[in-house]
Amino acid sequence: MDNDFELEIVDLEDNPKRSRVRRRSNGHVGNAAEGKKPDGVKIERGENERWDGTRWDHFELRERSVEGWAAHVVGIAAAQSTPNPKAVKSSVLTSKPTLVQGFNDFVKEPPPSNKAAGRPSSIYQNLINLFNFSKELETERRIIANDPEHNAQYNYAKNYIKTSKYTFFNFVPYNLFEQFQRLANFYFLCLLVLQLIPVISSLTPVTTAVPLIGVLMVTAIKDAYDDYQRHRSDNQVNRRKSLVLRNGQLKEEIWSKVEVGDVIRMENNQFVAADILLLSTSEPNGLCYIETSELDGETNLKCKQCLPETESLGQDDARIGAFRGEIRCEPPNNQLNKFEGVLNWEGKQHSLDNDKILLRGCILRNTDWCYGVVIFAGKDTKLMMNSGKTKFKRTSIDRLLNFIILGIVFFLLSMCLFCTVACGIWESLTGQYFRVFLPWDSLIPPDPPGGPAVIALLVFFSYAIVLNTVVPISLYVSVEVIRLCQSFLINWDDAMYHPPTRNHAKARTTTLNEELGQIEYIFSDKTGTLTQNIMSFNKCSIAGRSYGDIIDPRTGEFLEISESGTWVRKKSKRKSSKVDLPKMNCRGGAVGGFHSSVDETEVTLLSADASSDGDTWMELQSLHHNDRGSGHHVHPIKCQSFFRETNVTQSTHDKVMDDASDLEPNKNTSYTRPVDLSRNPYHESNFKFYDQSLVDALDGGDPDCEAFFRLLSLCHTVMPEESRGKLEYQAQSPDEGALVSAARNFGFVFKSRTPNSITIFAKGVQEVYELLCILDFNNVRKRMSVILKRDGKIRLFCKGADSIIYERLKEGQDSLKYHTQEHLDRFAGDGLRTLCLAYKDLDEEYFLDWKGRHHEAAVSLERREEKLDEIYEEIEKNLILLGATAIEDKLQDGVPQTIANLAVAGIKIWVLTGDKQETAINIGYSCQLLTDDMLEVFIIDAHNASDVEDQLRKYREEIRNVTATKQPQTNLSVVTFSVYSDEGVGQDNLSDAGESNGGFALVINGHSLVWALNPKLELLFLEVASQCRSVICCRVTPLQKAMVVDLVKRYKKAVTLAVGDGANDVSMIKTAHIGVGISGQEGLQAVLASDYSVAQFRFLERLLLVHGRWSYYRMCKFLRYFFYKNFAFTLCHFWFAFFVAFSAQTLFDPMFISVYNLFYTSMPVLALGIFEQDVNAKNSIKFPRLYTPGLLNALFNKREFFRSALHGFLTSCVLFFIPFGAYYNGMDQEGRSMADQQTFGSVVATILVIVVTMQMCLDTSYWTLFNHITIWGSLIFYLLLQYFYNFVIGGEYVGALSKAMGEPLFYFTTLLTIVVLMLPVMAWRFYWVDVRPNLSDKVRFKQRHDAKMASKRSEHDMLRTPSARRSRRSVRSGYAFAHQEGFGRLITSGKIMRPRNMKQGPMSNGRATNLRPDNKISLVAPAPSTVEV
Fold first, then answer.
1. How far apart are CA 1409 and CA 1411, in angstroms?
2. Which of 45, 8, 14, 6 is nearest to 331 (CA)?
3. Is-contact 10 67, C-beta < 8 A?
4. Residue 1344 phi/psi, 5° resolution?
5. Calpha distance 310→328 (Å, rounded)
6. Beta bridge partners of 750
7. Global pTM?
8. Structure confidence at residue 285 (pLDDT)
9. Phi, psi of 817 (to 5 degrees)
């Protein structure tokens, strides 16, 4: 195209300025390649950018996610509008075609800056440049390999990484700056300054300085320790060793010294040190294999391939050291699946794409060695750019406290202002006439107008100091201590200990504990978090018979075997209609018919479940007895007929029935032992299968079973390899590996392959098949086929999704299709991943004709993919159904129960995964995020903005139509839980926790999520998603995960929690309010970035419902009590001001004021905040609705604060005025007056300590030894300290309290005050607890009742434990095959094959031998490629 074009790309990588680049090109392709600067390049700052001190923050999460997708959309649009698609496919450096039009129209650019292009930079900008706060915007990267001098001029980032916040030099100022962001700390700092002024201070500065310094030091030590752990992690990574080529020789260097342009050598099972361009490898055709679990959570191998031109470098260090290729590529960005660049070498230009790049964090697998040149290092690597930034997290209670303290400060200033005005009035009207008795200070002007004004001004500051205890510094000391102790309780909880990994739960921060009790949204990764990423062959259906289930011979109920070897029962739903069922013999054959209404699934499983004839008889007998009791009868004659046909003698029957009575739960009986496959020399010890009848069928030569496993051993793209004498399989998908492994264990061993043949051992006999063609898998076909020839017969084997295979079956298989579909529905209901297997015999003449047409399509230059699909469609018809497989993607223990319980608690769970849609949906059903009783599962998979918007609007209307027809729900009262008041106190609503009817679910793909998260559609997307019970986001990037979390944080104002186990989850974990890392098999990046770490997802249930709820409950109770006791204490000074001419005279002894919160009342409230609990841990999990108040901030909010403040206000009135009235004209027994200030102050102080301690007794629900010691010990300590201070040290109030306590008046006044204050509180609580109890009160009553009953009777152990996964019929497909396209072409082309000649000898590319140093004899090398056939 000769016409000009314009390319506008929003370049939003994480660079210092976040500037927007607008590049205009005149259409000349050679500009970039020739190194010329594009015309009209200018850098502008958009109006939405803001300066944060070190960089331009351009709405970080949202904008960073869009990066790279603009170019992607541009390429699609250009390809669609250009006749020749190849003309628009080029690197960003050659001629990036136009047509960002659609993208830019959708994402409106802010207007450009009004600054002229030639305007000189400001002084501020010069200072920024002077101190190197930023660098020039990088629009392209230019590298020359092995040329450090050339590369140094660009000042590229080193390979040193830093995740810590502080350094040795900036720790003190930076940490103090963060701490003084707390309004309370800043308030107390100002207060300390005022106390240093003697004229206005009536209290010593020590009373404020010591607690303030203590709080700052404790917090600083905690922050320093947390950052020290980050430094250790950084040092551990930075000090990893790597082989770097320097001056033509390999030299061992630590990672932090690796620089851009260096050539490094990596060996098998090593981490990749930086983002590198692959130069050469040990594998054929320049292939290498990596594991990317740290990036995307997937453990299956991926293939990379170097350029053929650089592959010839081999491992010749001299030649590689002389390599001076020039690389020009895109600047650093966060797109894991995108790379564009060119390599200029030896006068030729070579295109570079993502297939030639190894990213930092990958692990080299099954490749002896490889060489690569560093493209991006350190913070510029894609892994680090997806990691996000460590943020300072505060809890919602912290934010509320800041607001409350601000309000209290205004309240304090109001009281001070009132006292100031009152003091000025009193001095003007009365005080000036008593200057002889009460002289003014020398600083006070003697004239009447000026003197009272100055006195009033000084009194303002004096009362600010006297009344400051309304928000004491000890509040924050106590909060930090409580949080620290709560963290220890989490760390010490043995119920969250995982013995296999020896990992305890760990609180990696001490500031977020109560936030665990307010989680409303959980964002979870899938692989490694919900699942173990282990596939196991679980069940199968062969020729209409189901294999793999286990039933209890006593009850006929289905059993599940857990990982520990114990079993649990599966509940089945009974059908009311009668079904005509064949009676079965021990091989599953039909021998007659009888009518029964037993569960259909049970009868189906009888055909394949018995491990022996005796067991089979026991099963039928148990069904006969059970059905007889329930009104369902099995004809006894038919049962006897079955008994005779199975040739079981009566004596055997009697013996079996006698033995059945001795069976105990979880006992390792014959039907719960795995079948013995040890006769097979290739069997795997970790393979478990529990249905003996399948082995019996194979031993009996069942042709269907043999054909089934023969297909599994032949129809795949798995590559075998021998390691230390053992046969190992390398598969790109774990599903396919599990199927081939199952065939191997049942005697059909895939042994080796060549480009033209497949060799298997079928029950010990070698069979060699000629490989004629592979019809490879892709996400559109959802199936794969192989065409094989043996003994002159050509047969096509096919496996794929049930919906795809059923459409292509030959007619006349209705019965087989019906029974297989029944099994498929049940497998899908159990959350298993299913595939259908079929075959077809081919005529040789037809095949040769088809092969010719296939070759023509394969080499076609136009519509190649469409033509191949048509050819494939032609031959994959009229298939004969063999059966179906059911693979279990093993969930972690307890995942379904945990999700169900958290859902009942009101927590919404979203799954954000990089897996494909089918896999994610299948796991959603397995863990009960998705259920078959949902009204609809919405799927958003559009590729452009308008289609995504249309889908979202359509689904919103559907939701509105459904909700409009429903009856209005009764609102839940958080205080009384009145909606549940009709339920029994002890009713357990957990049994159907995950089975609530109705509701919607939303599944959205990553390419659709790009548009859904755009500012135009994000609110619409959030509206739809928030009305769904479950949300699953598939194929999302790490940064998209963080964007979803950020979207909910911004608009829903809800507390969010992100949980993951890999480096791809780090950004999400850092963005959420709370990040939880799973210490799994994908490294420790997620754990190191998290706030809490657990070993299993199931521990999240206890972390939230027990520790989180307790922490929130304790903190709220602590704060309510703390504000109450301090308002009651401080406002006594305010009432006293009316009687002392507002002179800032204190009512209490200054020593009492200093230690009231430090000693007298601190320990009881600390014990309350650490040990308090309304219900125990067991009931907290059993009744998850107890978690609901935390979701709505019901236990501490502004209303609760005002209630506590009002309580303290009234208490201070009673505390002051009752003793005031009693002692106003009080006389002792000898007639002496007791109306002095010191006696009155001592009496009020004593009554205050007693009253607030009694209030603590009423507030304490859970009494421990520490509560008793602190509560009663505080009263005793008060009396002892008063005596010691006044009589030993000689305080100002010496003898005042002892004198008062010697008179009956003191005890009468104390009793009266306590009764007046405590009686209304007790009456109020009696009304709410006994008359209108909430759920917590009911559970607590049940808890006490159960404790009483437990002392009278022993606990009864339940024999039957409900299954984690309910067996239910499903009408959905269980298809979820995690495979990728490309293996077939590699295999048939031979490029993936390692030469079978194992003789040692020199090779031209520097490889000395094909023998591996670890003594592996590689029969073939696994991996994918894009080589055409």
1. 5
2. 14
3. yes
4. -65, -40
5. 16
6. 760
7. 0.69
8. 80
9. -65, -40
Lowest mean pLDDT among 353-362, 909-918, 1051-1060, 1098-1107: 909-918
Structure tokens at 1164: 């009881």
SS3 376: strand
pLDDT at 1204: 94
Residues of the chain by 3-state class (helix, strand, coil), percent to 5: 45, 15, 40
Backbone angles phi, psi at 268, to 5 degrees: -55, 140
Beta bridge partners of 344: 326, 349
**Which of 55-69, 190-204, 1411-1425 has maximum average pLDDT?**
190-204
Question: Could you tell me which residues come within 8 angstroms of residue 961 by beta carbon, excluding any fewer than 6 positions away?
Answer: none
Residue 357 pairs in a beta bridge with 277
Tokens 């309000």, residue? Answer: 407
1351 exposed, middle or buried (CB, 10 Å; 0-12, 13-18, 19+)? exposed
CB 1127 within 8 A of CB 1205: yes
DSSP letters spanning 1367-1417: -----S--B-----TTHHHHHHHTTTPPPS-------TTS---SS-TT-EE
* Residue 1064: pLDDT over 80: no
DSSP, collapsed to helix, strand or coil, labels residue 599 as coil
Residues 1285-1297 pLDDT 10s: 878 877 778 888 8
What 8-state DSSP symbol labels residue 498?
A: B
**Residue position matching structure tokens 């026991």:** 618
Count of residues in the chain? 1429
What is the chain's alpha carbon radius of gyration, rounded to the nearest angstrom? 38
3-class DSSP assignment, residue 519: strand
Residue 565, number of CB atoms within 10 A of its CB: 12
State CA 480 to chain mean position distance.
27
In three-state secondary structure terms, 784 is strand
DSSP 87: G
As a whole number of angstroms, the distance between CA 1402 and CA 1425 comes to: 27
Considering only CA atoms, which of 748, 854, 844 is closest in space to residue 793? 844
Mean pLDDT, range 1383-1401, rounded to an integer = 55
Q: Which residues of 990-1006 are buried (b: 16+ CB within 10 A; e: fewer)?
A: beebbeeeebbbbbbbb
Determine the Cα–Cα distance for residues 600 and 428; give it in Å rounded to an integer: 98
Residue 921 is encoded by which pair of tokens? Answer: 């949906």
Q: Which of 377, 291, 463 is nearest to 1137 (CA)?
A: 463
| Contact indicator for 189, 183 with CB cutoff of 8 Å | no
- Kindly report the backbone phi and psi dihedral angles of residue 784, in degrees, each rounded to the nearest multiple of 5, phi listed first: -140, 150
What amino acid positions are annotated as catalytic residues?
Answer: 525
Compute the distance between CA of residue 690 and CA of residue 609 in angstroms, rounded to an integer: 9
Query: Which H or E run includes 421?
Result: helix 396-429
* 215 closest CA partner among 476, 470, 535: 476
Residue appearing with tokens 């009676």: 583
Q: By three-state DSSP, how is residue 366 classified?
A: coil
Which of helix, strand or coil describes residue 5?
Answer: strand
Cβ burial, residue 351 (10 Å; 0-12/13-18/19+): middle
Residues contacting 201, CB < 8 A, separation 6+: 194, 195, 462, 465
Residue whose C-alpha is closest to residue 574's, from 590, 597, 593? 597
Predicted local distance difference test score (pLDDT) of residue 1415: 38
pLDDT digits (tens, 9 = 90+) for 1335-1356: 888 998 888 888 888 766 654 4
Structure tokens at 429: 């009207």
373, pLDDT greater than 90:
yes
Collapsed DSSP state (helix, strand, coil) of residue 884: strand
Does 1277 or 531 have the greater pLDDT score?
Answer: 1277
- Cβ atoms of residues 409 and 187 within 8 Å: yes
Strand ranges inside 740-812, DSSP E: 748-754, 757-762, 765-775, 783-790, 793-800
Contact 789, 799 (CB under 8 A): no
Q: For a pLDDT cut of 70, what percent of the chain falls above it?
A: 72
Residue (of 685, 691, 690) closest to 565 by Cα position = 690
- CA 256, CA 241: separation in Å to the nearest integer? 9
